[in-house]
């Protein structure tokens, strides 16, 4: 009887030890809400990235990767509470997410309090790796400055006047601030700014203010839109015929569903984070092939980002030889790794992932549901002077 009890205790201890050996990653993201499409892409990409980086085993050095999903519902208070739960109750080794910049900003202090890593993907606001940053934050996604600098390079020109329209929260405000700064660096400026609530569906008043500010200017005139989610400001403003004032629409890249609306704008230029046909490298080849085989469609904007985060997590743990936070930070500062966009690098000063961006021109192709962002030129890391904003 004693032997049976002892054997049972040994078995229980072995199971507990095996469970403790799991590498636990929390994916905290807005599964439900206006950015649901972004969230699904991000999670699909994350799982593909973990699979790719582990050669299909979902293990690192014999330890199983366990992914715990948590839904923020795009509420900052939920993101904060769920990250506390993940670090405290679930005892995860690191966390990845969220979708929304507002949610991310609420989560940053939690990582510092618990002294655990948060890999931010795909929230964009500069302040995440800027004014609100702490040393436990790494971001694989692009930031507002990367969007802004690449779009400034694509859009600015001699005697070109640019107005902006953006959502009135961290993503939009940080994006326009960075865009203005980038334009100044190439000798241009913003002629007029408009900010509207995130759920705006009627853009008449904002558009009229933009038109009034731009109509008497000489030279080229462009309206640059930064937008996330629904509302479709591009098409709605275009229906008001900005061309009568010589104003052209302009914006950055987006998910394929949103780029259906871009078919109204053949020849429109901008810069994008990712389009599945643009990068030419083995990681992207694998992603495109596997995604089409499993989901019957090409990988999208945030799928590539999720995959990048998954690969980064695996490569960091391999490099550190541990899931210890301090060892991971040491391993990740300056770390280079291969992604669907090619080689990326975590800048040591702010842990922002430096990465290429892509200047595009919209082309409409028969049989393709969305507008195709045809590559004008790839903008390398060295061509994108991204400010360090946490100093």
Topology:
Blueprint: H1 2-21, E1 23-29, H2 36-53, E2 59-60, E3 63-71, H3 76-88, E4 94-96, H4 101-114, E5 117-120, E6 137-139, H5 144-155, E7 160-167, H6 170-185, E8 190-196, H7 204-214, E9 220-226, H8 233-238, E10 247-251, E11 269-272, H9 282-295, H10 301-320, H11 325-332, E12 336-339, E13 342-346, E14 353-354, E15 357-363, E16 372-379
Parallel strand pairs: 1-3, 1-4, 4-5, 5-6, 7-8, 7-9, 9-10
Antiparallel strand pairs: 2-3, 11-15, 12-13, 13-14, 15-16
Helix pairs in contact: 2-10, 3-4, 5-6, 10-11
Structure, explained:
This protein has 11 helices and 16 strands. The chain is α/β, with parallel strands linked by helices. The strands form 4 sheets. The chain has a 6-stranded mixed sheet with strand order 2-3-1-4-5-6, with helices on both faces. A 4-stranded parallel sheet has the order 8-7-9-10, with helices on both faces. A 3-stranded antiparallel sheet has the order 11-15-16. It has helices spanning 2-21, 36-53, 76-88, 101-114, 144-155, 170-185, 204-214, 233-238, 282-295, 301-320, 325-332; strands at residues 23-29, 59-60, 63-71, 94-96, 117-120, 137-139, 160-167, 190-196, 220-226, 247-251, 269-272, 336-339, 342-346, 353-354, 357-363, 372-379. The model is unreliable at 1-18 (pLDDT under 50). Helix 5 (144-155) packs across helix 6. Residues 23-363 form the Leucine-binding protein domain. InterPro entries: BCAA_transport (IPR051010), Leu-bd (IPR028081), Peripla_BP_I (IPR028082).
In summary, what is this structure?
The chain is of the alpha/beta class.
Number of helices: 11
Give the total of domains: 2
CATH superfamily of the largest domain, by name, is: Response regulator
Q: What name does the CATH topology of the largest domain carry? A: Rossmann fold
Q: State the CATH architecture of the largest domain.
A: 3-Layer(aba) Sandwich
The beta-strand count equals 16
Cα end-to-end separation: 66 Å
How much beta, percentage-wise?
15-25%
Order of helices and strands: HEHEEHEHEEHEHEHEHEEHHHEEEEE
Helix content: 25-40%
Rg (CA only): 22 Å
How can the largest sheet be summarized? 6 strands, mixed
The shape, in one word, is: globular
Give, in spatial order, the strands making up the sheet with the most strands. Answer: 2-3-1-4-5-6
Structural class, from helix and strand content?
alpha/beta
């Amino acid at each position: 009887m004693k032997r049976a009890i002892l054997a049972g205790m040994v078995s229980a201890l072995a199971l507990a030890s095996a469970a403790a050996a799991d590498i636990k990653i929390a994916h905290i993201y807005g599964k439900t809400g206006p950015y649901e499409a972004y969230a699904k892409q991000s999670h699909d990409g994350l799982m593909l990235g973990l699979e790719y980086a582990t050669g299909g085993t979902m293990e690192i050095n014999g330890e199983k990767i366990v992914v715990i999903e948590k839904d923020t519902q795009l509420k900052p208070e939920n993101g904060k509470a769920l990250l506390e739960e993940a670090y405290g109750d679930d005892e995860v080794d690191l966390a990845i997410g969220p979708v929304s910049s507002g949610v991310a900003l609420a989560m940053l202090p939690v990582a510092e309090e618990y002294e655990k890593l948060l890999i931010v993907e795909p929230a964009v606001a500069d302040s995440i790796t800027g004014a609100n940053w702490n040393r436990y934050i790494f971001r694989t996604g692009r930031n507002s400055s990367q969007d802004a600098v690449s779009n400034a390079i694509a859009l600015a020109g001699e005697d070109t006047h640019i107005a902006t329209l953006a959502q009135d929260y961290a993503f939009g405000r940080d994006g326009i601030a960075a865009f203005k700064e980038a334009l100044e660096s190439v000798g241009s400026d913003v002629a007029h700014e408009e900010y509207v609530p995130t759920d705006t569906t009627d853009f008449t008043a904002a558009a009229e203010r933009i038109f009034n500010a731009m109509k008497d200017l000489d030279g080229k005139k462009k309206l640059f839109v930064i937008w996330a989610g629904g509302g479709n400001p591009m098409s709605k403003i275009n229906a008001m015929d900005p061309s009568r004032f010589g104003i052209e629409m302009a914006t950055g890249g987006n998910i394929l569903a949103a780029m259906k609306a871009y078919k109204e704008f053949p020849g429109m230029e901008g810069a994008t984070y990712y389009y599945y046909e643009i990068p030419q490298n083995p990681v992207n080849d694998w992603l495109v092939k596997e995604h089409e085989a499993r989901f019957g469609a090409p990988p999208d904007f945030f799928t590539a980002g999720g995959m990048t985060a998954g690969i980064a997590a695996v490569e960091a743990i391999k490099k550190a030889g541990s899931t210890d936070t301090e060892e991971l930070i040491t391993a990740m500062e300056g770390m280079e790794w291969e992604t669907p966009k090619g080689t990326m690098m975590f800048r040591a000063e702010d842990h922002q992932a430096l990465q290429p961006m892509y200047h595009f021109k919209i082309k409409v192709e028969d049989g393709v549901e969305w507008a195709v962002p045809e590559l004008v030129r790839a903008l390398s890391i060295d061509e994108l002077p991204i400010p360090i904003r946490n100093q």
